[in-house]
Amino acid sequence: MDQVAHADVGTVRCCEPLHRHATWRIGGPADLWVEPHSVQHVVNFVRTAGRAGVPYVVVGSGSNLLFDDAGLRGAVLALGRNLAAFRIEGTRVWSQAGVAVPRLARNISRAGLTGMEYAVGVPGTLGGLVAMNGGSLRRSIGEFVRAVTVVTPAGDVRAYSQEECDFAYRHSRFQGSRDIIVEAALDLEWDCAEAIRLRMLDILRTRRVKFPRREPNCGSVFASGGEMYERFGPPGKVVEDTGCKGWREGGAVVSPQHANFIVNKGGATSADVLRLIHRVREAVHARTGLWLQCEVKHISQSGQVMSAHAVHA
């Protein structure tokens, strides 16, 4: 651990409380918290951690993560505002992975480029959005990606084309991969900047009305799509129709405002959230015969990353 802490890897903090870095405000301490300031810092970190045998996980803004109450025995590599440069040339956008998605979307819109309006209200960083092929309003970032640059587990830098990224609904080749996304290139289209701005304002107004904003949450808990969506509708509707709105485990509550959100009413633990997820899934399965899948990922004390529905409550 000392080798990583003293390497040229950016900003390093020890015993960092993870609840400070998760939108759910849940999580115990990590042995090391590392914020690289450059792609070379990421390379240095991966090579040093590999030589020292230090386990690590990679995070962005923590908007779809559930850190364990016990924290993490190893290092967290956080790609955030210190790795957030971008530039716009014509209809092509190059961006580092740590940029906040709403910030990037607003700057793209001011340049008169359309395609990313939906992302103005999406929490998280570009790297996480690309890895999850995330989106909103039935749009996904993979539609616009032309290339993705990663640091491999060996500490090498390589690029993938859009075709090599294997984008599908909420899926990419980077899920389950140890490649670390550090940059992406996007291709967009011209449009009237004022028209784009008005569409974005409308999206933000809709989100303010529909989604809980005051209590800590991770955004959508359950994934939309597949047979469940075709037969019963989006997950929020399914959970509401099952009667789960307002269900509670400790400090974790199924939001009365939108049933696909679990909010932290104060003092919620990862165990509370996992129990609540399992209760909701069991109830929905009993009514529909189908299982809801989770978008949110749980990070265990050992650094294992799993969809929350696969974690024993």
Describe the overall structure.
With 313 residues, the protein is α+β, with helices and mostly antiparallel strands. The protein has 3 domains: 2-81, Uridine Diphospho-n-acetylenolpyruvylglucosamine Reductase, domain 2 (2-Layer Sandwich); 84-196, Uridine Diphospho-n-acetylenolpyruvylglucosamine Reductase, domain 3 (2-Layer Sandwich), CATH 3.30.465; 226-310, Uridine Diphospho-n-acetylenolpyruvylglucosamine Reductase, domain 1, CATH 3.90.78. It is 27% helix and 25% strand. The chain contains 8 helices and 19 strands. Strands 6-7-13-11-12 form a 5-stranded antiparallel β-sheet. Strands 1-2-5-3 form a 4-stranded mixed β-sheet, covered by helices on one side. A 3-stranded mixed β-sheet has the order 4-18-19, with no helix packed on it. The longest helix has 19 residues, at 270-288. The chain is globular.
Protein topology:
Layout (H helix, E strand, L loop, with lengths): L1 H4 L5 E7 L11 E7 L3 H14 L3 E4 L5 E3 L4 E7 L7 E4 L2 E5 L4 H10 L2 E2 L11 H7 L2 E2 L2 E2 L4 E7 L5 E5 L18 E8 L1 E2 L2 H18 L15 H7 L2 H7 L6 E2 L2 E3 L7 E3 L5 H19 L8 E3 L5 E3 L6
Parallel strand pairs: 2-5, 3-5, 4-18
Antiparallel strand pairs: 1-2, 6-7, 7-13, 8-14, 9-10, 11-12, 11-13, 15-16, 16-17, 18-19
